[in-house]
Amino acid sequence: LEIYGAGLGGRVPPYPMTFDELERRAELALPPSIWSYVAGGAGDERTQRANADAFSKWGLVPRMMVGATERDLRVTFCGMSLPTPLFMAPIGVIGLCAQDGHGDLATARAAARTGVPMVASTLTVDPMEDVAAELGETPGIFQLYTPKDRELAESLVRRASTSGYRAIVVTLDTWVTGWRPRDLATANFPQLRGHCVANYFSDPVFRSRLDQEPETNPMAAVGHWAQTFGHAFTWDDLDWLRGVTDLPLILKGICHPDDARRALDRGADGIYVSTHGGRQANGGLSALEMLPDVVDAVDGSAPVLFDSGVRSGSDAVLALAMGATAVGVGRPYAYGLALGGTDGIVHVLRSMLAEADLLMAVDGYPTLASLDRTALRRTI
Ligand code: FNR
């Protein structure tokens, strides 16, 4: 009501109201190399486009006379009670999108203001403890890239636990980076100088392994990343990680139902369906396409998080109807950050939530429980 009332009252919103406009303005606001890093994907970006296009193949069937005057979007998973089913997906070095480089702190403040949890990347520029301190009452989740050195993994997970993160997202699909032509064409991250990915650079185990102070120039940082995190996580590693933390473990990047079943059998607490926004593989398969199969395989025994291609509140509602427990916003909030810092992110999240809420009202699905696959029709 607040957003809509202001608009109808003739107050021009300070930030874009559509994703296309948000993207256009973010491109103008960011230096070309940083724009390429955030907006780019793998190969010819077919998967990236497929992720977003997949939503237009589905429609929500309206139900009338339901009396959906009050909507309830609350959700609980992995011990976290949340006001809405949105979360902010991890975005490494998001500091690049912030004027002052402290994009992780800005994101955490947006989480505190909206109640939308932040998944803090291993590659935060700001140390994860500083990020956690800005989250207020909103839960934080720590995303682990899987290091070759188990002691480093253990240290990162221990730091997450000590600083109050409530779950660990283990990213499985990025032990090697995808082929990203836009990065290769413009790779030059000037703003990284001086405060490069301080989260893992400041880790005591990482530091104990150094012969000399690491260079923080961008190329050296990429080299460090590859040397440190280029480990293809295995089922045995999952057994090991399960043994070193009591925090819920959510596996990110799972798209095959067999992998989902196996992960749960081996002690994972949640599945996170994602194609990494089309930044890793470019096989052309959207994440949404695989969501129903994974939801069926999990069969209600664990939460199923989802991201890749969510651009609006309606997209989020479709993913929820397909069985996602919670839906991750990726690039849109990075663009909000680029345009307006914390305020820009808050605007993006609140607009999505308002759109989702209104759609649920208009189409007669007042609760998340009422939204299931019977609400959907394939349109193409
Ligand atoms: C990412 N993503 C990501 N994922 C992850 O697990 N750890 C990370 O550090 C990053 N870093 C990262 C940087 C940038 C610039 C982007 C755009 C994305 C992937 C992210 O969590 C999510 O899966 C995608 O962003 C979802 O796709 P869309 O909706 O952004 O297209």
From TrEMBL:
PANTHER family: FMN-DEPENDENT ALPHA-HYDROXY ACID DEHYDROGENASE PB1A11.03, S -2-HYDROXY-ACID OXIDASE-RELATED. Belongs to the FMN-dependent alpha-hydroxy acid dehydrogenase family. Glyoxylate binds at Y37, Y145, R180, H276, R279. InterPro entries: Aldolase_TIM, Alpha-hydoxy_acid_DH_FMN, FMN-dep_DH, FMN_HAD. It comes from Pseudonocardia endophytica. It comes from the Bacteria. The lineage of its organism: Bacteria, Bacillati, Actinomycetota, Actinomycetes, Pseudonocardiales. Pfam families: FMN_dh. GO terms for molecular function: FMN binding; isomerase activity; oxidoreductase activity. Coiled coil: none annotated. This is Isopentenyl diphosphate isomerase/L-lactate dehydrogenase-like FMN-dependent dehydrogenase. Residues 11-380 form the FMN hydroxy acid dehydrogenase domain. The active site is at H276. Its cofactor is FMN. Keywords: Flavoprotein, FMN, Isomerase, Oxidoreductase. FMN binds at residues 90-92, 121, 143, 171, 252, 274, 307-311, 330-331.
